[in-house]
Design brief:
74% of the residues lie in helices and 0% in strands. By secondary structure, it is mainly alpha-helical.
């Protein structure tokens, strides 16, 4: 028996919303700076992350409201979000480290549902690290080192979420702690993205 409440489920949508807003802002700001392939990876990855987070929150809401125990919806979360972070990170790092041309080939890798927790954890950590690295590099080039701290907070909170995932998530206590950490992390991510735009991200020349 899972100890979920409707308020808990609704709170779970908040970090998803923070990430979605930040992702859309980055997609708009970086669209003209990325090749089709890099942008496709980044856009697909962020859509995967938003979908996975929304699916998890929806599962909790349905369960808490006594509608149904849609376990298949819950099982989507881990594999989809892991691949999503990996694709997003590959897109951002590719933008920084390879010459971006308008005629680059479209490259997209759809998420695959599979079992293998160590692999999925590796995908998630690598993807998150690449996202943090790329955005920190951009902040450094904009001479706004203070923004780097926000992305470091996001990365640390994400790793903490990984640790908390090993706890009993059927208990409300651990769920509320995880949601608090996730809201803090995604809030820092959104604030960092907003500050990048204000610092002149749209005018910055990256790797053309």
């Amino acid at each position: 028996m899972k100890d979920y409440s409707v308020y808990m489920a609704l709170a779970d949508f908040l970090p998803v919303l923070f990430f979605a807003i930040a992702a859309v802002k980055l997609q708009r700001d970086l669209y003209n700076k990325m090749s089709k392939g890099a942008f496709a990876l980044f856009a697909t990855g962020t859509i995967d992350v938003v979908f996975a987070g929304s699916a998890k929150a929806t599962y909790k809401l349905l369960y808490a409201a006594g509608v149904c125990d849609f376990e298949s919806l819950n099982n989507l979360y881990f594999p989809v979000i892991s691949v999503g972070f990996l694709l997003s990170g590959l897109g951002l790092v590719g933008m920084l480290n390879h010459k971006q041309t308008e005629n680059a080939a479209l490259c997209i890798a759809p998420p695959v549902l599979f079992k293998g927790t160590p692999i999925m954890i590796s995908f998630m950590i690598i993807g998150l690290a690449m996202i943090c690295y790329a955005l920190c590099v951009i902040a450094h080039r904009l001479k706004k080192s203070s923004i780097i701290a926000l992305f470091v907070i996001n990365f640390v909170c994400s790793l903490t979420m990984g640790y908390l995932a090993s706890k009993d998530f059927d208990a409300a206590f651990w769920n509320w702690i995880a949601e608090g950490v996730n809201i803090l992390g995604q809030g820092a991510f959104l604030l960092g993205v907003v500050r990048l735009r204000r610092a002149g991200l749209t005018q910055l020349k990256l790797n053309k």
